[in-house]
Amino acid sequence: MTENAVLRLRAERLARSTRPFLARGNRIRRCQRCLLPLRQCLCETLKPATANSRFCLVMFDTEPMKPSNTGRLIADVLPNTLAFQWSRTEPPQALIDLCRCEAYQPMVVFPASYAGSERQVLSSPPTGKPPLFIMLDGTWTEARKMFRKSPYLDALPVISVDLSRVSAYRLREAHADDQYCTAEVAIALLDIAHDNKAAQALGEHFTLFRERYLAGKTHHPSAITANTTENV
């Protein structure tokens, strides 16, 4: 099993749990790495890539344990991705140190409309240092809470990505047409940072994940077709 930051964070979160975490579809036997049903496991398809850009996932509570989470797809493709559990009052020191690291240009990925007038908003990474994209990974409600209540991130610029297409993400219900999943935003960020090969690799991984995730849902047409075929 290839390790990455999200898998380690998931193991730490599970170790702290006082009761089993029961996500949707918890009765399905799943691969404990990709969290897909065993027959849809995509672990053997993983192809790590390299990029000048780096990602840091700040994940809300049980997010690392959800089969529908796409933040971990970034860590699958880019092994130097970092992941931290979000805390309003006790952020990990390693996260604070990372925000001050002079080797990178850290920025928070979030819609520009939520940034205050005093905050710098970028539409593309500045030239010079490699970009460090800090992504707030959770539901839309959770992400807004993290954005509002993370004072240790307030001094960082915000980068806002305009994705002028309908989201392919249908694993959870979006609250608005302009809301996208973590992996989709990361693909766009890699594109504008000119990490095109990494963007392509993550895009292919996301597409395959989405197909297999939906195929593993018993009410989805592709899953019904597969089950019918098996029963013939």
UniProtKB/TrEMBL annotation:
EC top class named in words: transferase
UniProt domain DTW: residue ranges: 27-218
UniProt-listed PANTHER family: TRNA-URIDINE AMINOCARBOXYPROPYLTRANSFERASE, TRNA-URIDINE AMINOCARBOXYPROPYLTRANSFERASE 2
Keywords tagged on the record: S-adenosyl-L-methionine, Transferase, tRNA processing
InterPro entries: DTW, DTWD2/TAPT
GO annotation terms (biological process): tRNA processing
Enzyme Commission identifier(s): 2.5.1.25
Record flagged with keyword Metal-binding: no
MF (Gene Ontology): tRNA-uridine aminocarboxypropyltransferase activity
Organism domain of life: Bacteria
Annotated protein name in UniProt: tRNA-uridine aminocarboxypropyltransferase
